[in-house]
Each structure stands twice: as C-alpha cells, then as structure tokens.
User: Fold this.
Amino acid sequence: MLTHLLIALGLSMDAFAVSISSGICIPDMKVRYALRAALAFGLFQAFMPILGWGLGGAFRSHIEHVDHWIAFGLLALVGGKMIYESFGIKDPTCDLEVYKGVMSMRNLLILAVATSIDALAVGLSYSVLHKPILGPAILIGVVTFLVSLVGCEFGKRIGARFERWAELGGGVVLVGIGLKILVSHLVA
Assistant:
C-alpha cells in the first residue's frame, strides 16, 4: 500500500506544479476553477494507468523475462525527466497557456492529458509485473485530485518558490520505486 501511495504522490507532482502555476497566475481563482482543474487532473491520472495496463497486457507474454527491467526503465525515465526538469530555468512570470488552461475546458483537458502521460507508463509497468491496476489507479486519481486542489491554493498563497522542489521530489520517488522493483527481482 505504501508503494502505491508513493507512486500516486510521485505521479501527481506534474499536476501539482501546474496547479501551483495556476494559483500564481490567477490569485483570485474561484473554487469552481480549482475543483474543475483538480477533477480533470485526477480523472486522467486514474484513467491513464488503466490504459497503460491494458496495452501492456496485449504483449505481456513477449516481455515477461525482462519485465522488471522494463518497469525500472519506465519509472527511471519518468522520474529522471522530472528530476531534470526541476533543474531547468523557470520563468517567474505567469504562463499564459496555464492561465488559459484552467479557464478553458479544452485547454484544461490538454493539460490533464499532458500531465498524465507518465501514469500511462506506470500502468504499463504494473501490467508487465502482473499487478492489479484498479485499486492503484483509483488511489492515483484521488491523490492527484487532492494534491491539485492544494496546489491551486498553495500557488495563490506561496508562489513559485516550491514548484521546483515538488517536481524534484516526485522524480526521486519514482526512480526509487523503480530501483526497488529491479533489486527485488534481481535478488529473488
């Protein structure tokens, strides 16, 4: 259960960062916009692992002998990308696309898909490891919903100072879980 929760927290960090940006850009953001953004992020974060799991099931028999390497590689890739991006230069001014994303349903859906692509890879990892996905997917969605709500408020109150650290922390968690999977299979 702890592993699933850590994965959910790690995956939710992209949505958290967008939510913080939204809170920064829209300091008078209405609760309905924060709820709408959190719901979109949570639903897509819950759906994408299920989609990835289904895709993994289609070719699982061909990759079973290297499944732990695939899971490690996907989690390390996603986590490494998050760590790398956390060191990038962040523009302290508001991103107009983030602002439009929260205000427009079309753009919000684009942001929700963009922040949940990583969850697709995690669903694929669950599939190749023969792990059930429904419970973890629901947990990922609920955690992302809550973290996104907090992120909107956090952005309004505190600003961009912690956005980088959230992304770095999420990346480290995902790489650590990938290492745990790899080591447990290699030792067994």
Q: What stands out?
A: The chain has one domain: 2-187. The first helix runs from residue 2 to 25.
